[in-house]
Amino acid sequence: MSTPILEVENLGVKYGSHHGAHHGRSDALYDVSFEVRRGELVGVIGPNGAGKSTMFKAICGLVNHSGVVEVNGVHCHDRTDRMDLAYIPQRNDSDLTFPITVGELVLAGRRRFNSWWQRPAAADRAAADDALHKVLLGGTESCSLTELSGGQLQRAYLARALAQQASVVLLDESLSGVDEPTTAELFEVFNTLSADGTAMLVATHDLALARRRFKRCLAINGTLRGDGTPEQTLSPNILDATFGSLGRS
Question: Where are the domains of the chain?
Fold first, then answer.
C-alpha cells in the first residue's frame, strides 16, 4: 500500500469554552482517527449536526482542535502547514453577492505560490486555465459566479483547489440540492481527479448516493462510527450508531 497522504489521529474539537464537560457533551467531535491515500474518493456520511463540517474545518486548521493532522508526511501545526489541503464549504447564497469572475476565483488558488503583492504570472494563468479545463469549465473565465448553476459553481471551487495544487480536497455537502444529471457530472470530475492522484473526501447525508458512488465511507456522529466499504459502513448497527442516536439524550 502507498503511504497515506492524510493522517488524522485522535482529532477532537470542543464546543465554545471548556465549561460543562459532563458526559462529553462539550465535545463537537472526539477521538477521530483515519488515513487516506493518494487518489482515494471517500464518502463522509452522517446526519446534519453530526460533526462532518467541524471535522473538515479541524483538518484544515480553521478551528482549534486536539489530536494530530499530517499531510504528505508533514505534521501540521497551523494553517500555513495545510496548503496541501483545500476545503470547499457548503454553498450558501451570500457567497454569490461578491462580484468575482470564475477566472479570479480560480487564480486565487495560486496565492500560496506568490507574495501577496505579486501579480499572477503567465504560469499561474496557465495553471488556472488547466484547472478549469479539468473540471469542464474551459472558456468561463470571464463569467460572474452568479451566472453559474449549482453544479458549475462546485466545479469552479474544485478548479480553485486544483490551481492550489491541493493533495486532498474536502467537499462539504457539495451534492445537496443538485439534480441527478449534475451529480453524475460532478462524479465524472471527482473520478478524473482521483485517477490523477487527488484524494477527495465528500460529505453527504444521502445514503443511497453513498452506497452507489463510493468505494469507501466514513460514518461520523460525534466520533468515527464506521470506516469501510459502503456495505460495511451502512450496516444496520453502524447506521443506528450514526443516525439512530438523534433525539436520544
Answer: 1-84+168-249, 92-166
**CATH, domain range 1-84+168-249:** 3.40.50.300
54 touches 224 (CB < 8 A): no
Grid coordinates of 87? 476545503
Q: Note the pTM of the prediction, 2 decimals.
A: 0.87
Collapsed DSSP state (helix, strand, coil) of residue 116: coil
- Angle (CA) 180-186-188 rounded to 5° is 105
Q: What is the pLDDT of residues 21-59, one digit of tens each?
A: 444 447 889 999 999 999 999 999 999 889 999 999 999
* Cβ contact 26:15 at 8 Å: yes
CB crowding 76-113: b at 16 or more within 10 Å, else e: beeeeebbbbbbbbebeeeeeeeeebbbbbbbebbeeb
> pLDDT tens across 93-127, in order?
556 667 789 999 999 999 888 877 788 889 999 99
Q: What strands, in cross-sheet order, belong to the sheet with 199-204? A: 85-88, 168-172, 199-204, 41-45, 216-221, 223-228
